[in-house]
Amino acid sequence: MAETAAARRPPVGLRLWLSGGWLTLLATAALLAPWIAPHNPLAQDLMLGRLPPVWMEGAEPGYWLGTDSLGRDVLSRLIHGARIALVVALVAGGLTALLGATLGLLAGYLRGRTDGVISRLVDIWMAFPPVLFSILLVAVIGPGLTAIVVAIVLIDWTRFARVVRAEAMAQGAMDYVASAQIAGRSRLSIMLAEILPNVLPTVVVLLTLEMGIAVIVEAILSFVNLSIPTDDPTWGGMIAEGRTSIHQAWWVLVFPLIALFLTVLAFSQLGEGLKDRYDPVLR
Amino acid sequence: MPLLRAILIRLATTAVTLLGVAVIVFVVIRVVPGNPIAMMLPPGATEDDIARLTALYGLDKSIAEQFAIWLSGVLRGDFGTSITTRQPVLSLVLGRLPATLELSVLALLIAVLLGGLAALTGTRARGTRAEAAIDIANGMALSVPDFLWGLILILMFGVVWPVFHISGRVSPALDLPFASNFYLFESLVRLRPDLTADLLAHMILPALALALPLAAIIGQLLKQSLKETMHLDYVTLARTKGYGETHVILREALPNAVLPTLTLIGVQFTFLIGGTVIIERLFSYEGLGNMAIDAVINRDLPLIQGIVILFAVIFTAVNLAVDLAYAALNPRLRHG
Fold first, then answer.
1. Does residue A105 fall inside a structural domain?
2. A268, part of any domain
3. Nearest CA in chain A to B139
4. What is the pLDDT of residues B280-320, one digit of tens each?
5. Range of A117's domain?
């Protein structure tokens, strides 16, 4: 009976295609933003404030998704916001994976005192409320993209470290590692050439999920007004603005929300899809 | 007494963890550029005024000295004075704690209810379209974090179909006869359904936003455990005795499948509490998290310090409670 239920679920391939498709579309839009955005995302025109989307009454042609209270074009801001979202996803996700996986690998393979120190750090980190910690870090470092990336890396490395540590421990106990040791290979060489390739699928899956988390964290920080200093378009900043004018202009909130929703869903479905297909550990 | 020994070791590591948290926050918030004292004084304040107040709050000493002073205060129950409100941090924080606890517990209840329902219905409807639908809903709820659920709920039930409040904890016009800040609890105890209804109309959306991701996790794990249990011999035996499917699931399979889920709920509950920070902000709910964000924006160092420590204490206490409950519930650990 379990098999029939599984068969009715959308096939893994479809999930990967849909999420991959959305992310490709988003990446293309982000790359070509200056050419495809119909307006300057920063241009204000108070005469054109809070225009509804084109299919509604009172809309102005050319402003497809309407304008915000300062008369800035929502679609153009959305497209430019995709740049910041994707840069944060890639850079913060990648660096988090690098730091977390490295520490996890060291703890799991070397064990002993190294593991003791790293595991203790993980424990301490797990006792922090993550959102509050990230807000605190950004407040300390000062607003800007760098601060967001640093905050995400410093907070989320434990996600990688915990899983990779356990996996490296399991791999370290296997025969092929023992035979490499007997063959006189150095610990560094075993770690990089034997253990790393075996934990890599796990890291890639976690990285995909982390990118979705990074996009959300950026939005949260923009929402509490700590992310990007100027009025640069970020999805979180747009959402914060939309939240205040929700009763007068719902579209200012709805469109960035949809973009954020689809992007987070795409990253997580991509991760889940990759997990089901390639990763024997997390599955 | 291996159990007692294990508990003592856990308490010791917990203390180390809390100390580590305290040190890290202390150092991090003190490298903040900008003098918080200068920020709180009116523009006309002289250098002397600033220096005097800086000394009053002890901010002119080295970080190590400041930490020693702070720690000795904490051990006596004194968490310092908030810079912005000039009130003791402890009373400020404890004043807001009930709001956050009530919200978290309500969210937990909703999560257990929804997740449990999804798992039981999914198991009952094994192999049908209903199960597939539940799985898809679960997957969605799991992929989308609480912040986004909060925004979606605000749109759905605050704007499109405005049946609930989207900001605040209680209607300001109401006259509250409460002696403590546990409003929801007191309204229940004092049998004031009007107040309970108003509180719930404010709390339900933020609680639901916090609950949905956890409900999905509970639903998934519990269903998986139930499915594994359903194949065991004693369940088959109950079935051959002629008991109905619902009875078999609830009475035979559930009690044996519930343990892994309970452990998971404990760990996930700390994530839920961490989520209250942004959810309270989103819904302008007057709890700890909202106060924490204001404290960060105002550079209120003693208050930030107090709130983070309190969160860390709650997290470690929940984890400790889960471990103890697990030891008490699991027959293998109890007799071993």
1. yes
2. yes
3. A269
4. 999 999 999 999 999 988 888 889 989 999 999 998 888 88
5. 51-278
Q: Read off the pLDDT of residues B101-110 as tens digits, 9 standing for 90 and up.
A: 999 999 999 9
Q: Which residue of B has its CA nearest to A119?
A: B17
C-beta atoms of A135 and B277 within 8 A: yes
Q: Which of B90, B96, B100, B99 is nearest to B306 (CA)?
A: B90
Considering the domain boundaries, does residue A33 fall inside one?
no
Q: Which residues of B touch A118 (CB under 8 A)?
A: none
CA of B191 to nearest chain A CA: how many angstroms apart? Answer: 35
Q: Give the CATH number, domain containing residue A220.
A: 1.10.3720.10
Burial of A148 per CB tally in 10 Å (0-12, 13-18, 19+): buried
> Percent of chain A scored above 90 by pLDDT?
33
Query: Considering its fold, how many domains does chain A have in total?
Result: 1
Q: Is the dihedral of CA A259, A265, A267, A273 positive or negative?
A: negative
Record: contact A213-B145, CB cut-off 8 A: yes
Amino acid found at A37: A
Between chains, do B282 and A223 touch, taking CB under 8 Å as contact?
yes
In contact, B146 and B212? CB cutoff 8 Å: yes
A45 occurs within a structural domain: no
Q: Up-side HSE of residue B70: CA atoms within 13 Å toward CB?
A: 28
CA B96 – CA B287 distance, rounded (Å): 5
Is the Cβ–Cβ distance between A81 and A263 less than 8 Å?
Answer: no
Nearest in space to B39 (alpha carbons), one of B229, B299, B330? B299
Per the CB < 8 A criterion, the answer to whether B54 and B37 are in contact is yes
pTM of the predicted model as reported, rounded to 2 decimal places: 0.88
